[in-house]
C-alpha cells in the first residue's frame, strides 16, 4: 500500500520557493558571467558639512553646484546622505576611481526642492563632466528620461520599440525616497525605477569604459544615499 506524504502543504511551498530562489540566483550569476563585482557608497564615513573625498564635484554648463555630505534622519542607511543644494545648468558629481564599461549603477534619492527643476540622475561611462550617459527622474515632470551628453550638449534617446516621445511618465513624489538604476551592456541600457523595469534604450555613442556619478539640474535640491555600482567581466 502506498503511503501518503506526511509533508504539509506549507512545508512543500517553502521548499519550492527556496529551490526557486536558488535557481534564480544561479541563473543571475550565469547571465552576469559569473564574476560581477559590486560596490556600495553610503557617505557615512565623511564628516557632515564637508564634500566627499575622491570625487570631482562640478557641473556641465554654468553655475555654482554645491555637493556636501549631510546628516539626515530619513537616510536609508543612517546617518549621512550626499546633498546637492547649489544651482547650475547640470550639477555633476563624478567618482574619480571608477571605470566601468558593462555593469550597473543604482542610487536611492529624495527630491527636496526646486522651482525650475526637481531632478535626480545617475551617470555612467563618463569621460568627464561634458561627456557621459545619464538617466534622471524629475519630480516636477513626473517622468524618467535617458540622455547622452556629448561635448556638453544633452540629447534624449529614443526608447526601444517606440519612435519619438520623451522618456516614460511615472509618479516621482517629492519628499520621498526612490530608487533609480541602469544596467548597461554594450549599446543596450535597461532602466529600473523603484524596483520596476520601465524601458530600454540602445545607443553606441560612448562605447568605452568610464566613470560613474550623480547628477541634478538647475535649482534642484536633492539627497542621495546608497550609491551602488558594479562591473560585469
Automatic annotation (TrEMBL):
Keyword Aminoacyl-tRNA synthetase assigned: no
Pfam family, one: 3keto-disac_hyd
Stretch forming the signal peptide: 1-38
Descriptive protein name: 3-keto-alpha-glucoside-1,2-lyase/3-keto-2-hydroxy-glucal hydratase domain-containing protein
Xref: InterPro entries: AL/BT2_dom
Keywords: Signal
Keyword Transmembrane (UniProt): no
Membrane-traversing stretches: none
Domain 3-keto-alpha-glucoside-1,2-lyase/3-keto-2-hydroxy-glucal hydratase per the UniProt entry, residue ranges: 52-221
Domain of life: Bacteria
